[in-house]
Amino acid sequence: MDAKRAAVHAGKYFLFTSAFAVVGLALVGGGVALGGLEAWDILSADSSATGQALSAAAPGIALAVAGLLVYRFGKAWSLYKTLTAANEDALSDTFDTQHVKSDIVSVLDDRLADMQNDLQSVNRELRKLKDDDAFDFSQSDDAEPPNREP
User: Fold this and answer.
1) Torsion of CA 111, 114, 119, 124, to 10 degrees
2) Which regions form coiled coils (predicted)?
């Protein structure tokens, strides 16, 4: 993969993670503002009311945790999307399916041609043996086989 395409994939990853970070940070900020300020007001009025302050801050804490989860999910999703796209992009250059198919067909053609030549030579040899050793069924068992001179 060339540097330009690698930079494009890195840029996409940066943009995706930045967008999820902004959304996650906004949720965390909203959670802190929602729950933290109300808990601060309760604690500043009565410092012993921690239970009441925590119950008032619970929606804000939940929103902040949701923001953190959005950021973590977005980071993982961005990595998956950009990494698989970069991998597919790199493989498309190195693994040309048409070239592989033509190589396989070429090898198979060569092997089939070799097998055909072998079969033709075996058939010629069998015909030669058949013609050389033609057996005469009209001879009886008493008769001597014909003399063949090498």
Assistant:
1) 170
2) 105-132
Domain count, the chain: 2
Q: Within this chain, do residues 60 and 126 fall inside the same structural domain, yes or no?
A: no
36-77 tens-digit pLDDT: 888 888 888 888 888 888 888 888 999 999 999 999 999 999
Range of the domain at 23: 3-95
Residues 56, 100 within the same domain: no
pTM above 0.85, yes or no: no
Q: What amino acid is encoded at 61 in this protein?
A: I
